[in-house]
Amino acid sequence: MVSELPFERPLAELRAKIDELHKFSVDKKMDFSEEIARLEERYVKLEEELYSDLTPPQRMQLARHPRRPTTIDYINAIFTDFIELHGDRLFGEDMAVIGGLAKLDGVPVTVIGHQKGKDTKDNLARNFGMPHPEGFRKALRLMKQANKFKRPIITFVDTPGAYPGITSEERGISEAIARNLLEMSAFGVPVICIVIGEGGSGGALALGVGNRVLMLENAIYSVASPNSAATILWKDAGQADRAAELMKITAADMLKFEIIEEIIPEPRGGAHRDPEIQAGHVKEALLRHFKELRKLDAEQLRADRYRKFRKVGRFTTAAEMMMEPEKQIIAQTNAEGV
Hints:
The chain is an alpha/beta fold. It has 16 helices and 8 strands. Helix 1 runs antiparallel to helix 2 (33-52). The model has no long low-confidence stretch (mean pLDDT 89).
């Protein structure tokens, strides 16, 4: 198996036994085909049980898998003629955010995303996918350019969160995130955001204000990373799994709360099992949603985006809960201005 996770070890151990028995059969020229077939059948059953009902902590582990496809992987697999653009024209280059011009089935688009590293050296250069303010300002520069030239915008979200260090604070990380939220809400071009791994805190939302927000099946999306939440709640980052259980971070949770529009399926075992198939699923979803959005003009796109985010975070007061069902419906309808 490819870099198996802790919960996948029983599966990896069974596969090792199958391989060992097969090798022994070849070396000793003995027939163990029936035994191997039984073990293969057991492997398929165990795999089905393991991946059919993953817990939030397990999905978090898959979202953080070191071999999971990153933004640049999807850019290379889905788009053509990609030209990377650098710098925010204010401070410098931030390699935790990658972006530029590309074509999606021949249509010019702007594509931007968080970029994690492929190894330790690359992760250090890209700050483990945690942008400084200049990363968000670079993204905003590219998005404004796209809006000016009427190019659709695609963003890939994959970050534990914006970098929380003193250098970020000195250069205005809060303002940079807030500025992105403000500007993205007003663009007159289609904006599609896809959470491909971790969608952590404001660092994720700074690239996440779109007409459509999609999530991969094993991605996570949360107000803070489970590690940060555990530190805040229990003063112990080691309780991240406990936080993940409580925070409703999975794609299924986000769809239920209407924060996202669609869950993009992953190959069994995660996107890293077959990046080519995964890229195909992502491309299909992108093309389908763009076909719908390109029918809308600038004002309609802004109104569509406003409606999407206005409905997030609905709540019911104690007084409303005591109303008869019919009165609750009337009160909700009046509140929404229908």
